[in-house]
Every structure is written in C-alpha cells, then in structure tokens.
Automatic annotation (TrEMBL):
PANTHER family: AB HYDROLASE-1 DOMAIN-CONTAINING PROTEIN (PTHR45763:SF46), HYDROLASE, ALPHA/BETA FOLD FAMILY PROTEIN, EXPRESSED-RELATED (PTHR45763)
Limits of the AB hydrolase-1 domain: 26-264
Keyword S-adenosyl-L-methionine: no
InterPro entries in the record: AB_hydrolase_1, AB_hydrolase_fold
Keywords of the record: Hydrolase
Organism: Streptomyces cavourensis
Native organism taxonomy: Bacteria, Bacillati, Actinomycetota, Actinomycetes, Kitasatosporales
Protein's UniProt name: Alpha/beta hydrolase
Pfam families according to UniProt: Abhydrolase_1
Gene3D superfamilies noted in UniProt: alpha/beta hydrolase
GO MF annotations in UniProt: hydrolase activity
C-alpha cells in the first residue's frame, strides 16, 4: 500500500502530520502506541488490501511531524481526529488502537459518536481511576514503576525517564519472536518517535494516569477488545474491566499472547471493523 504524508494546520496554530493510503474503501483510523509515530501498521497491509481498507492516521502531538500539546488528555485525540478526517473528506469511519493507542481510539468512539461506526483496541489500557481494578496488577515491575512515576506528576516522570533503561522482560518469548519477524516493523516507528526526545511519550503516560475526559461506558458504537492473556505491559484485566462496563463491547482474549504477539489478531480485528456498517 502506498502511504501519502501531509501536514495539516489546525485552527489553534498546531500542525498534525497525517498519513493516508487513499482509496474509496472503508476508512480505519489507526491510533499508535507509546512511543511510536503514526504510520499505519505495514504488517497489516496485506489484510487491509484484501478488505479494501483505507488507512488514515497521524502522529500524536509531540511525535514526528506533529506539534506538541503539553497538557493534552486522552480525550484530545477526538478533537484532533475530527479535523484530520474533515480535511481528507472522510465522513464516517472506524478506529483501531494498539497499546497506548487503545484509550485514544476509545476517546474517538465516545466523543465522535456521530462519525464512528465501530472501535477496536488491541492490548489497550483501562482508565486509571477504574473502580474495582488493581490497575498495576500483572505489569512487569519496570512498566509499573514508569507509570507510578507519571502518576506523581511531570517532574517525577522526567526524573524517572532520565535514568530508565530498556527492560526486555516486559515482552514474552512470543513477543520477542514477533519483534524479530513480522512485527520488526516497530523499528521503523519507535526510533523516529524518540528522535525528538522523551517529551511526547512522557506526555502520553501523564495522560493515561490522569482523568481521560470521557467515560468509556458511554460508547454507543460496537466495540471490540482484543487482549493477550500473557500481556506484561497492559494486563488483560484492563480489557476485562472495560468489557464488563461497556454495553456494546465484545471481548476476545488470546491465550499465550503478549503485548506484541497479540497483534497477530490484527487482521481479525480489521475484518470485524469492516463489517461495521452505518
């Protein structure tokens, strides 16, 4: 699939860097994880072509070619997706988010109900204030420590990141295998995401542990929650919690899958989204 890139100037003076594969098929708006840029997921291109999918996506503020938005919330994604889709002449669409992109996809489903036909998240998070959920339970210690620092505020998070190192234990053996093969694609979006420094991923994490600005239970569009049961970064309990509280949700757990290897279900999620018709 050929991906065109452009810069969209917003009314507030910010710029969003936008990706679009074009075509007149069903539109799936991709929400990237942390820390990634917004290029649509190339490992899913074959499945997308077979389904006629048109990918639309963007670098979240502070990543890649998009201007920073220091105090953004998860809900801010909806305010950015509306002008992106307007500029591309897209009326109704579905949303798909992986990892940290999951909450941002939920924001669009909740706040752009007039536009969103369906939403899917893969390995997503639940709100930090989720009642009855032990939010950190099941996370690898390094991931929990990183997010606990975020919960203490920007200064604490910046101090934590200044001394943080990569922890391979956050990924399962199946994840490492996926990263060495099909999903080596992440090398193309992680490196560029970090070239501008740590501010964008720090802002992401601050948003995850702050009030999101919407209630996922208000989502009226069909919602698919896909999660690996062995996920060490965003434990499956997060999707279980969402499934129990979102009336339109369907939960699909993947035995043996971790945070990356669960993306082998990406084609299945695309098929589900394409079947959502207004």
């Amino acid at each position: 699939m050929k991906v065109s890139e452009s810069d969209l100037r917003l009314e507030d003076g910010r710029t969003l860097h936008v990706y679009d594969t074009g075509g007149d098929g069903p539109v799936v708006v991709w929400h990237h994880g942390t820390p990634n840029t917004g290029a649509p997921p190339a490992p899913l291109f074959a499945a997308a072509e077979a389904l006629g999918v048109r990918w639309v996506s963007y670098d979240r503020p502070g990543y890649g070619g998009s201007s920073p938005l220091p105090d953004r919330t998860v809900a801010s994604a909806a305010a950015d997706v509306r002008p992106v889709t307007d500029a591309l002449g897209v009326g109704r669409f579905t949303v798909l988010g992986h990892s940290g992109g999951g909450p941002h996809a939920l924001a669009c489903a909740a706040l752009l109900g007039d536009r969103v036909l369906g939403a899917a998240t893969v390995a997503g998070l639940a709100p930090y204030d989720a009642e009855g959920l032990d939010w950190y339970a099941g996370m690898v210690p390094s991931s929990a420590a990183s997010l606990r620092a975020a919960a203490e505020g920007r200064a604490a998070k910046e101090a934590y990141e200044a001394g943080a190192t990569y922890d391979p234990d956050m990924f399962t053996d199946a994840d490492h295998e996926a990263l060495a093969s099909t999903w080596s694609w992440f090398d193309e979006v992680v490196g560029p995401a970090l070239e501008g420094g740590p501010d964008a991923p720090i802002t992401d994490d601050l948003a995850y542990v702050a009030p999101w600005g919407f209630d996922p239970a208000t989502i009226a569009a069909p919602l698919l929650l896909v999660h690996g049961e062995e996920d060490r970064i965003a434990p499956a309990a997060h999707s279980r919690w969402l499934a129990e509280r979102c009336p339109t949700a369907e939960l699909r757990l993947r035995p043996g899958a971790g945070h990356i290897s669960v993306l082998e279900a990406g084609a299945e999620a695309l098929e589900w989204l394409v079947a959502r018709k207004g």
